[in-house]
């Protein structure tokens, strides 16, 4: 899978500017192995029966989770991008549905899903508080969310020679999260039962309503 992006009329970037999931770079592969291992542990801890994946991108994780859910329902949502649609076609399962929509005002009922996820999404959205609130409304038990950790993320980009003109800021990143700020946002909706920091990310599993 090549790294391609689309920029809409509002300047929102969709897709991955860098294919971290498919990279052959040994350093990136090592970082992604750590990221995936931590994410997988939190996923297993939640033991969700149905999932809303907000900002599912190319559907790499969404499809993996669909396989693990068996017959459990999973819905991946993202913006209207033909490049993403092509990737979705190659990642299909009977229990998996992809929908085109923004994260605000989601057309799902309260508690329709057991868990809502947003993996590497909140750095992109114009109003992350509103996005998390909608996720919490649609989920019954859990939120699972990850973001790049600043300033480590920028430093990592610059170390690999990327985005020097923007001081290492990845295109489309409009929010820059410290672990503390990320924790404070998510704790408004429940108990942060796990906070993990696989370099250079932060991820949280939140028990809603606690």
Automatic annotation (TrEMBL):
Segments forming domain Methyltransferase type: 52-140
Organism: freshwater metagenome
Protein name: Unannotated protein
InterPro entries linked to this entry: Methyltransf_11, SAM-dependent_MTases_sf
GO MF terms, alphabetically ordered: S-adenosylmethionine-dependent methyltransferase activity
A Pfam short name: Methyltransf_11
Regions that span the bilayer: none
